[in-house]
Amino acid sequence: MVEGEPLGKPREVYGYSDTGYILLSKIIEKATGHSLALALRELLDYDRLGLKSTWMEGEEDAPAGLLPPVHRYIGDYDATFLDNSINLYGGGGISSTTSDMAIFFDALFNGEVFKNPETLNTMLKNPGSLPNGAESEDYRMGLSKEGVVGISGYMHRGFWGTVWIHMPKPNYTIVVNFTNQPEGAGIITSTTEKLQKLVESK
C-alpha cells in the first residue's frame, strides 16, 4: 500500500473495504500455489456442488451455452463490458447465475461447503461492538445479519444489483438480480412473505 492512512488499529474502527478481500486472495494464492480462480474452483469444488455457470471473469473462459449477460449500469452509463480488472482479485470478479448462487448459498448454510462445521460458525459470528463503541452494522465475514418481514436471516447485496438472502428458519435461500429494476428490492420482501405463508400453512 502506498496510498492512504490506516483508519485505526485492529478492532478499534469498523470500515468495510474490498482491500481486505484482495489481501485474503493473495494469501489464498500463496497457500495453494494456484491462481485465485483455480484455487476457488478446487477449494469450493464447483463440480461437486453442481456450479456449472460460475467462473471468474478475465481469468477463466465463460461456460458454454450461457445467455448474454444482464447489462450493468453505473448511473446511466452501461458498464457491462468494462474491463473486469476493476473488480477482480477478491474484491469481486466472480460471475454466476442466480440459479448457481442459490445452489451455493443453500449448500453453504446446510454444511456442504466447509469440511469443518466450526468454519461456518466463525463466518457467522457476531463481531459485537468495538471497544470505542463503534458498531460493525452487524457485518460478519462477507455477509450481514438482517431481517425480512420479521424473519432473521443472512444477506449480501452486490454492487451490480444482485442480492441473496438465506433464512435459516425456515431453511430457504432467495437470489434476486434487479439491475434493471430500481424498485426490485421489494421482490425479496414479497417472495419471503409468500414463502412464509406457505410454511405457516403446513
From TrEMBL:
Keyword Metal-binding among record annotations: no
Lineage summary: Bacteria, Pseudomonadati, Bacteroidota, Flavobacteriia, Flavobacteriales
EC number(s) given by UniProt: 3.1.1.103
Keyword Aminoacyl-tRNA synthetase among record annotations: no
Domain of life: Bacteria
UniProt name for this protein: Serine hydrolase domain-containing protein
Keywords: Hydrolase, Membrane
Single GO term (MF): hydrolase activity
PANTHER family from the UniProt entry: D-ALANYL-D-ALANINE-CARBOXYPEPTIDASE/ENDOPEPTIDASE AMPH, PENICILLIN-BINDING PROTEIN 4
Localization: Membrane
